[in-house]
Amino acid sequence: MGYFDRGVIGDKWSSRILWLSALGSAVGLYMVMVERQLQNREKKMMEALRAAESGTQDGE
After folding, report:
1. Strand, helix or coil for residue 60
2. What is the spatial distance between Cα 37 and Cα 40, in angstroms, rounded to a whole number?
3. Cα–Cα distance measured from residue 54 to residue 46, given in angstroms and rounded to the nearest whole number
C-alpha cells in the first residue's frame, strides 16, 4: 500500500507541475503579445511623427 500512496502523491505533483507549466506558457504568450502591441504603437507613433515632420518641411 505504501508504494501506491507514493504513486498518488506523484500524480498530484505531476498534475501540479503540468498546470504550472501551462500557466507559465500562458503568461509568456501574454507578455509577448503585450510587447508586440507596444512595439506596434511605437512604430505607428514614429511614422506619424515622421509624416508630421515631412509635412511641415514641405509647407516651408
Report:
1. coil
2. 5
3. 12
pLDDT 10s digits, 1-35: 455 555 566 788 889 999 999 999 999 999 999 99
Q: Locate cell 504513486: which residue?
A: 7
Radius of gyration of the chain (CA): 26
Q: Is 26 exposed, middle or buried (0-12, 13-18, 19+ CB in 10 A)?
A: exposed
> How long a stretch of residues is the chain?
60
16 to each of 24, 28, 50, how far by Cα in Å?
12, 18, 51
